[in-house]
Specification:
The chain is mainly α. The chain is built from six helices and four strands, in the order αββββααααα. 47% of the residues lie in helices and 8% in strands. Helix 5 crosses helix 6. The longest helix is centred in the C-terminal third of the chain and has 23 residues.
Length: 171
């Protein structure tokens, strides 16, 4: 699949389609991306969604966002996460919940622990499929399972540092 034909979230290295926030730049976020199509190089700037220089940074941002949902906003089930992530005013939230549950093999009302790495990777991969279409399966894509794992570990490290700083630890 050529880069041009890839879904928007994958072209942007933003598998969960995190929206741009002018007040916050994620680690690895860029203003625009350059893509190669054979000998042709073109620039793409997405005004609405974050673009990351590499897919690992997109996964990292996704996991940090999910951590915030689970810990800060108490969205600790697929139902609660998706109701906030994809509200009914913008999406078919019920279908999104059902699809994430189906693809992740986790019940919609099952309590989720952010520190359950396997569950988090399954949920993020399932959300990626919903966000980018079933033609793009992150588990089958090149190196994506390793990128999911590395993105989770990077987010976990960032979350632990943030929590340590909030508790008055050293920076």
């Amino acid at each position: 699949m050529s880069r041009i034909k890839l879904p928007r979230g994958i072209r942007n290295n933003n598998p969960l389609n995190i929206r741009r926030n002018e007040k916050q730049m994620w680690v690895g976020e860029v203003a625009q991306l350059e893509h190669k199509n054979g000998a042709e190089i073109y620039t793409e700037r997405d005004r609405f969604f974050c673009q990351f220089k590499d897919l690992i940074f997109g996964w990292r941002a996704a996991f940090i966002t999910l951590h915030t949902y689970i810990v800060k906003h108490k969205c600790n089930t697929i139902e609660k996460i998706i109701a906030r992530w994809a509200p009914p005013s913008e999406n078919n939230t019920t279908q999104y919940i059902n699809n994430v549950s189906f693809f992740s093999l986790i019940y919609p009302d099952a309590e989720i622990d952010f520190y359950d790495k396997i569950a988090m990777i399954k949920i993020a991969a399932a959300m990626c499929i919903v966000e980018n279409g079933t033609a793009y399966d992150p588990i089958k894509a090149d190196n994506t399972l390793a990128l999911l794992d590395a993105g989770y570990e990077s987010a976990l490290h960032a979350v632990k540092i943030k929590m340590k700083d909030a508790e008055g630890g050293t920076k």
